[in-house]
């Protein structure tokens, strides 16, 4: 995918996830979550080059943290159409893996519970939504199409199509009325405003 196509895809994802978004230009200029994602892509590319790229990757990551209030370790793997709404206080650890079409609200932590140099951060499947202040800790897996409630503390795996709430969090199957509707963004977004 080309650089320009990826930018347009990010802008569309922001429009799909945020009903307050007014234009592609506004999103590109003032959405800190999007800025953090763009910086992460640069940092991640540097990180993947090996030992010589690791220090510059951390510098880019820390500059992005300073500017956006969002800390994404350059080693984290982030999928396409990832959106962070509001963003302040989001922390994503080094071995975290985030699928496609995932949305995080402010104050979310994808953190570890171990100091060992192993996979120690969570894996989020595709189309997962994580509510404000939620903490997902350890090398656990949250299945596709799941939703984590605000302020939940998740320390165990959850299967696909789960609603995960509480401290410590418990999961239950997502009911039919709780499923995300499949909406074509072209139905409610003016493509001319995407940039």
Q: What is the gist of this entry?
A:
This protein is of the alpha/beta class and 195 residues long. It is built from four helices and 15 strands. The protein has one domain: UDP N-Acetylglucosamine Acyltransferase, domain 1, CATH 2.160.10.10.
Write the layout of secondary structure elements.
Layout: H1 3-17, H2 24-30, H3 32-48, H4 51-68, E1 71-72, E2 77-78, E3 83-84, E4 91-92, E5 97-98, E6 103-104, E7 109-111, E8 123-124, E9 129-130, E10 135-137, E11 141-142, E12 147-148, E13 153-154, E14 162-166, E15 169-173
Task: Explain the overall architecture.
The protein has 195 residues and is an alpha/beta fold. The chain has a single domain, classed as Hexapeptide repeat proteins (UDP N-Acetylglucosamine Acyltransferase, domain 1). 29% of the residues lie in helices and 19% in strands. The chain is built from four helices and 15 strands. It has a six-stranded mixed sheet with strand order 3-6-9-12-14-15. A five-stranded parallel sheet has the order 1-4-7-10-13. Strand 14 (162-166) and strand 15 (169-173) form a beta hairpin. The longest helix has 18 residues, at 51-68. It is globular and about 40 Å long. The two termini are 17 Å apart. Residues 185-195 have low confidence and may be disordered.
CATH fold label = UDP N-Acetylglucosamine Acyltransferase, domain 1
Q: In total, how many beta strands? A: 15
Indicate the radius of gyration in whole angstroms: 16 Å
Helix content: 25-40%
Q: Going by CATH, what is the homologous superfamily?
A: Hexapeptide repeat proteins
CATH class: Mainly Beta
Pathway: Amino-acid biosynthesis; L-cysteine biosynthesis; L-cysteine from L-serine: step 1/2
Protein name: Serine acetyltransferase
Family: Belongs to the transferase hexapeptide repeat family.
Enzyme class: transferase
